Amino acid sequence: MLKRLSKCVREFKTPTILTLVFIIGEAIIETFIPFITADLVNRIKSGADTKEILSSGLLLIVLAVASLTCGGVAGFTCSRASAGFAKNVRHDLFRSIQFFSFQNIDKFSSSSLVTRLTTDVTNVQMAYMMIIRIAIRAPLMLIFSAVMAFVMGGTLAMAFVIVFPILENTTASTNPSRKTSVPCARSRALPARNTKRKSLTRQPKTSARISRMPSASWR
Q1: Who contacts 11 (Cβ-Cβ below 8 Å, separation ≥6)?
Q2: How far apart are CA 133 and CA 16, in angstroms?
Q3: From 156's CA, which of 35, 57, 121, 149 has a CA 20 to 30 Å away?
Q4: How far apart are CA 132 and CA 139, in angstroms?
């Protein structure tokens, strides 16, 4: 399946590669900015001149603008690559539908085929966009931030090595308890709803008996 979908990229390989390049540049710049900020604070403590402070400030502004441009260009190329990928997937699906046999025509209805050409292709497009942008950026940010933490903090960065497994174990242990608590609450609420429905269904019978009482007494 992945090989078939990878063939649908075709002429949109260049926007995909450009997206990866700009995302890597954005991640590097965003992890390098705190290093310059820490250096600026150390210079101010040691009694730096105004020229040094202005030069560091201008460098931070340039890096911020570069990070912004990398993110904007990456978003543009990512949207173009994902839209082109979805166009090729939709084209290949429509072409394969044209060569359906009579058995497949009887098996798949027209509504299901329309859903596959619209909603399913849109979901594939969103998944491709998330893969080439967020799925690449998040691990790179983790790696670059860990490296910069060891460069700036030294042995203090060992706290990340200890905290990450603890957080992973706590999240894994808390999720099953949340899933099991919800069905219990629902199962307890079901008998109360059933009793309410039974009481509502019994009310018209009592009203009918009361309405017949005066007619019987009149006779």
Answers
A1: 84
A2: 9
A3: 57
A4: 12
Measured distance CA(173)–CA(179) in Å, rounded:
11
Task: Look at residue 1 and give its three-state secondary structure.
Answer: coil
Domain at 2-155, CATH class: mainly alpha
pLDDT at 72 (0 to 100): 93
Encoded tokens for 217: 């007494």
For the full predicted model, state whether its pTM sits above 0.70: no
Q: Is 90 exceeded by the pLDDT of residue 192?
A: no
Distance CA(125)–CA(81), nearest Å, equals: 9
Give the residue extent of every domain in the chain. Answer: 2-155
Residues 156-168, mean pLDDT to the nearest whole number: 76
CB 83 within 8 A of CB 125: yes
